[in-house]
Each structure stands twice: as C-alpha cells, then as structure tokens.
Amino acid sequence: MAETARQIADDLRVRIEAGEFPPGKRLPGEPALVKQYGVAKMTANGALKLLVNEGLAYSKPGSGTYVRDFQPLRRVANKRMARTGWSSGQSVWSPDLGRRDLVVADIRVNEVAAPRQVARALGLDSQDLVLVRSRRFLVDEKPVQLATTYYPASLVAGSAITQQNTGPGGAYARLAELGAEPVQFVEELRSRMPSGTEADLLALPAGTPVMEICRTAFTADGDRVEFNQMLLDAGSYVLEYHFTS
Amino acid sequence: MAETARQIADDLRVRIEAGEFPPGKRLPGEPALVKQYGVAKMTANGALKLLVNEGLAYSKPGSGTYVRDFQPLRRVANKRMARTGWSSGQSVWSPDLGRRDLVVADIRVNEVAAPRQVARALGLDSQDLVLVRSRRFLVDEKPVQLATTYYPASLVAGSAITQQNTGPGGAYARLAELGAEPVQFVEELRSRMPSGTEADLLALPAGTPVMEICRTAFTADGDRVEFNQMLLDAGSYVLEYHFTS
DNA sequence: CAGTGGTCTAGACCACAGC
DNA sequence: CTGTGGTCTAGACCACTGG
C-alpha cells in the first residue's frame, strides 16, 4: 500500500539476493505488483526498470521479467606470465568456467589515414596510412567483443595481415616474419555505459556497461607496431592481469 | 510533435556530441521539452533520465540537468615496469591530467574469520583469522575508491599493519620487514552497475558503473600474503597495465 | 486468443534551488 | 516566491509472447 517504485525494487532485490528468485526465474509481473502493492501500472513498470538498469534482471516483452545470470569469460592479458607456477592462486570469479568457443565474425579490412588517437598511439603523422582490421567476437551466437586493430600501412603492406585470413599463428606471427614481433604491451582500460550503437552491436541488455581497452604493442626495440581498440560486454568478461613490481 | 522519449534523447545526444552543449552546460529543462516537442512532462522527464542513465548527463533537482564532464585519474598497476623506456607511448585518454591528491579516509582495522572468497584467494582455511583493513579514497572531497585488504592474521600480528597508520613506506614496507615482501601480483577485474549501497558510499551519479578489482600479492617464494578488493568509480579512473608476453 | 511489458498522456503533489 | 526535477496516478494504446 502506497509503496514507491524504489521501495518495491528494494524489496525484490532483497528477495533475489536471498535466493527466492534464482537466475533465470521469472519475477512477479506488473499486474501482480499492481495488485500486491496497490500502485499504478507505471510505478510497477518503474520498479522493474530499476532492476533492469542495475543489471540484475532483463525483460522479455510479452513474456516477463527475469533474473539475470552471469557466466563471464576469462580474458588473461598476458598468458605467458600466467603460466608460471607462482600464480597458481584460485580464481576469484567464475572458477569453473567451461571452455566456450570464441567465434570471429564480420571481419573488415581497409586502409585509411590514421585517426588522431591512432596516430598518437603509434607515433605516426596524421597523413600516414594505417591498415584497419575490425571484427566482432561471438560466443554461443552472442556478440561479446568488438575489436579494431591498426597497423602502420607501410609495415604490413603485402603481408597476410592485409587479408581477411591472416594465416597460421595470426597477425603476430606475420609481424614476427616481418622482423617486428610484438613482445611488450600497454593496455589502457576504461568502463562506461555504451552508446546506443554500441549497445546494438553487442546486443547488450540495459544496465550493462562496456569495458574499453586500448592496447599498444611494442617490439623489443621499442617500436610501436600495433594499436588495438577493444569494446567488451562487461557482463561477459572477467579480465586478468599478471605482473611484477 | 509526437516525438517519443527515445527520439528526444537521441536528438539531445547528437547535439551534445556536436558541441552545442559542452560539459557542464545546462540542457533544456522539462518544461522546454514539453513545449518544443509537444509531449507530456513525464515523457520529457523520461528523455532526460535516459541521458542520465547513459552517464552523459546528471541532474540537480530544483536546478536543471547538465552535461557531465570526465577527468579520470590514471591508475598504473605496475609502476616499475611503466618507468622503463620502451613504454613511452602517448596516453590515449586524459593525457593532460593535473596531479590531484588522493586522500585516505574512514580507515577501519579489525580481525575476523576469513570469508570464503578471501580464504580461497590466500590459501587459508575458513577458520583462519585475517586482518581486515578497509578504507575510502577521496579526490577533491569526492570518493573515488573503496578498498578492503586482507592479511593472514598470523603473519602481520604485532606489526604496524594492525595500526591505522602503517608507517613510512606503508604496508608493503612492513611486509618486507617481516620477510614477506610482495613482488608479484595477479589482478582480476570486473565491471558492473553498483548496488544502492555502493552508489551511496561512492556518491555515484546514476549511469556510472563500478570496476571491481581483486588483487592477490605473492612473495618471491610464491606465498600469498595479501588480498585486496577494490571498488572504483568507473567514471573517475583509467587503468593502465604494462606487461610482456 | 488473453496476458505481458513498453510507452504515452494529463494532471497532481512534493522537495529543493536560487533569486 | 517561482521554477525546477522527481515521482505517482489512472487510463489508454501498441507489439509481442505463448498456449
């Protein structure tokens, strides 16, 4: 009686966390909330929308509102260091991750003048040409990551990096053949809410942030040979970094 | 004329990105939108709420809705590696960050039985005691980070780590004196929307995600001596990682 | 087909800002 | 004090789901 949308949402949140509504379970619908709490339909809708915007639930129009479940992928930035023995600690999240396939789709390759940000990252002039490879990664048909990679065009001209299929070992193997093997990396990472376009491309439910990663790759000589801009569905990923200090 | 909330928000977003409304500028208010687009007040409110939930704007009740501006801090996980010459590439975001002071507040120290997650991370039994240090970091009076650090109680008993002030060089210097200097680290990172409590503690505007970092610290022998759980205001931080592979 | 979530309207009341 | 954002109501229409 005379509850507010926020209070109804709080109530439901408590019951979700208490396990009354396990992941995947349908929450009480708008008509039920209207009857139970004696509020208007719009208020009930607002309460559910709060939960959705918090990323706790998602709604299927015409069907219901359901508790979300998380099964994030684990992205280990530096695999080689991670393999050394000392880092054998247990994972904090998603320790029992089944191995799921990462499918690459929508590969596009073209050559453009270096955008400002890219030129600065790679140490180029803004008139210099860069090779752009963009692609989309899917897991179980669901997009989880957009990636756009830039290479100095003069460096990779004629190599398989300019093809859709970069060949065995991928782009890094080709760079190594060109005498420009990347061995050192810097990643800059932000998190924010997605734009509408980004939300569409990643098929993001409301209430899901994205993680934006800008990775610069260096050769042993300190030359910058790759700039990779990634956009991850934050609900689909746990990132892992290993380092010494 | 019969615009929907989403369309109005799209319109405003375009104009924001075009520079018509620079950061800090007040957006057209609800009454203005009602008149301009011929919609109901609730629709105008919904349009502005969309922008707020995207993190593009914030509203000051009684005053107006304003375009947000970002001035993130830069957190470099491994400072030592970052100092080496090869990583001298330009920063992608916030290149001209002024040096702002990170103030520590609300330090609480106590001893409890290890929570499950902590026990697993530190390789302890759940009956083992851990020393818990929790604190809040502020920049310009605004909270930007919550941190809770756990140490095996038997390791740090009697040291200054059990005090509010850990002394010169901080906790790591004390660990080094105990023969347990942390030199290797694993960080696991997630991003998600905050709970209501977390949003309050960090004074987060709506539409701001948090980044959750779990860091485990190892000695050269591979012993785990610290577990640090951090919660960052995503709008206030850019993270930077350096590594080889 | 009935039930669901999504959205809009028109009007109302409140708390707060800032003059 | 007036103007602002925040929220609620009661009723309406739509598109979609699922039996």
Q: Can you characterise this structure?
A:
Two copies of one chain form a homodimer. By secondary structure, chain A is of the alpha+beta class. The first copy, chain A, folds into two domains: 5-67, Arc Repressor Mutant, subunit A (Orthogonal Bundle); 73-240, Chorismate lyase (3-Layer(aba) Sandwich), CATH 3.40.1410. The first copy, chain A, has eight helices and ten strands. Chain A has helices at 5-17, 30-37, 41-53, 79-83, 116-122, 153-156, 170-177, 196-201, and strands at 57-60, 64-67, 73-76, 103-113, 129-139, 142-152, 184-192, 210-218, 224-233, 237-244. In chain A, the strands form three sheets. The first copy, chain A, has a six-stranded antiparallel sheet. In chain A, strands 1-2 form a two-stranded antiparallel sheet. In chain A, helix 1 packs across helix 3 (41-53). The first copy, chain A, is elongated, with a radius of gyration of 23 Å. The termini of chain A are far apart. In chain A, 36% of the residues are buried. The model of chain A has no long low-confidence stretch (mean pLDDT 90). At the A-B interface, helix 4, helix 5, strand 7, strand 8 and strand 10 of A face helix 4, helix 5, strand 7, strand 8 and strand 10 of B. Chain A binds a DNA duplex (19 and 19 nucleotides) through residues 2, 4-6, 29-31, 39-43, 45-46, 48-49, 59-65.
